[in-house]
Design brief:
The complex is a heterodimer of chains A (235) and B (328).
Chain A lengths: L1 E12 L2 E12 L3 E5 L6 H9 L6 E6 L2 E2 L5 H6 L2 E4 L11 H8 L6 H14 L1 H4 L11 H13 L5 E5 L7 H16 L3 E6 L2 H7 L2 E6 L2 E7 H6 L1 H7 L2
Parallel strand pairs in A: 3-8, 3-9, 6-7, 7-8
Antiparallel strand pairs in A: 1-2, 1-4, 4-5, 9-10
Chain B lengths: L1 H36 L6 H22 L1 H4 L2 H28 L7 H27 L4 E2 L7 E4 L11 E4 L1 H22 L1 H11 L1 H6 L4 H27 L1 E2 L3 H15 L5 H25 L9 H15 L14
Antiparallel strand pairs in B: 1-4, 2-3
The chains are: A alpha/beta (235), B mainly alpha (328).
Bound molecules: adenosine-5'-diphosphate (ADP) and magnesium ion.
Organism (chain B): Anoxybacteroides rupiense
Membrane topology (chain B): Multi-pass membrane protein
Keywords (chain B): Amino-acid transport, Cell inner membrane, Cell membrane, Membrane, Transmembrane, Transmembrane helix, Transport
Chain lengths: 235, 328
Amino acid sequence: MSLLRLENINTFYGGIHALKGVTLEVNEGEIVTLIGSNGAGKSTTLKTISGQVKPKSGTILYNGKDITNTPPHVTAFDGIAHVPEGRRIFPRLTVKENLEMGAFSVKDRKVIEERMERVFHYFPKIKERLHQKGGTMSGGEQQMLAIGRALMMQPKLLMLDEPSMGLAPIIVEQIFEIIHELNEEGMTILLVEQNAFQALQIAHRGYVIQTGEIVMTGPGQELLVNEQVREAYLA
Amino acid sequence: MIEQVLHTLPQVLIDGLALGAVYAIVALGYTMVYGILELINFAHGEIFMTGAFVGTAILLTFSGLGWITSMPAIITLVLVLIVTSVLTGLLGMGIERVAYRPLRNAPKLITLITAIGISFLLQDLVRFITELKNGNYILTGPNLFNKQIGIEASSILSVFNDASVKSSFFIVLGVAIVMMITLDFFVNRTKWGMAMRAVAQDRETAALMTVNVNKVIALTFFIGSALGGATGVLFAVQYGTIDPYIGFILGLKAFTAAVLGGIGNIRGAMFGGILIGLLEMFAAANLPIVSHGVLGAEYKDVFAFAILIIVLIFKPEGLFGKVTVEKV
Ligand SMILES: Nc1ncnc2c1ncn2[C@@H]1O[C@H](COP(=O)(O)OP(=O)(O)O)[C@@H](O)[C@H]1O
Ligand SMILES: [Mg+2]
């Protein structure tokens, strides 16, 4: 069953037509990746889903419910976590506070602590840095914290916007491993990447977006060997 | 000359502390709103003034009913503080809802001009209502704490003159300190305080954490305005006579305090307020002495604004500006 479905979404920034009839589907338990070059409309797709920008037309269905015009804090409450491009850690909150922000809608202190332990399981490094300010961490640590913060929401759908951006290859490797692990444990993931090679390797299915249009879709392994994809994104 | 300065020092410290506490809490309102919206809420000085009028009006009503003499003064004050801060808190929240929120995405200058417009509106509104009820827009409230207490500073150091304080000084200082500690606790130790800081740092991302940003902004205005209004009551209790224009200069000085402490920084605003209050009283007492009578005490205001200009030129981030290194 599809957990998330975008139907013919058109999104504008003033006069710029950023998404031109995007249709896309994420099934429960899948890793779906959306790849494309800079400015193609990947971030806009995620922002439209979470409600940061409103589409002019089209519908977004989540769990069968229309969330097309739902504001971001409600979308998040409904179980869609959005790890934005550039990580967006709260720089002057401590690492612990950043994690607590992820569980803002949770009232029970014990539940918050349990989830935090879960985050430490994936990212043991975070535990050593709890009382440091978020802004003082390295890029890789910030990315881990950003994913950890999203896990604090215990989302049904995890959307990641270019988690590998600007990170050393070894860190990227670790992060993709954890994304894979999360999925194995049942988390549905929508992964936006410019790093098409690694994204397609772990994805069940992929979509290729070009200047606001989905131009190709298929299983990850198929796109990985597709001539056009190889030429445009894997060169 | 040093000796003369020392003579008046005890009195300067006492008066400066009382005034500084008032500046500090009004400064909090500027700094909180700036921190979250990057808006200099010029109307905040007028919220303070409105608080002074509302508080005085309630006190005068109590007085008319004969309650002032039958109730302990401190209970009367606490009652007035609570009612006034709720009312001014709602007023601030209403202003945000009606005047600022529709302009959330407009250029900063437009919101700033709107804030100045709201200032004038409040001044005129308060003046109109007071004149209607009172026939005169200057108001003097009943004296709640007017016992004069002598402080024998000369017994500490012989060069000091004895100082004297109105008993209201201790009340003002005490209430101010309680308000500051409570706010500091709220902002740094509670969930909604954390949400406030998160919204101030990154509004979009805070929303992705299920935070209703509009609610947090409304809350910020409520708290800042409630504190500002309560401080208006303290001001009226300490200084007795008020008019609709007290919020203007006082607001500017409190804003100076906020800039001095690093705009957006709550503890900085408290420190800046106390410092400006002390400096101003020090200047008022000593300018005539130091300048051999050329500069009178009334030049003390120039002092506060000279500080504003100096800070803006040499240390625009303030004494406690944000220093966290932000790596990408
Ligand atoms: N806030 C904005 N205002 C105007 N144009 C924007 C804005 N954000 C993105 N765009 C434009 O929309 C298009 C898609 O951008 P984006 O979704 O960020 O691309 P990607 O994430 O794939 O790099 C680009 O042409 C970009 O310039
Ligand atoms: Mg992007």
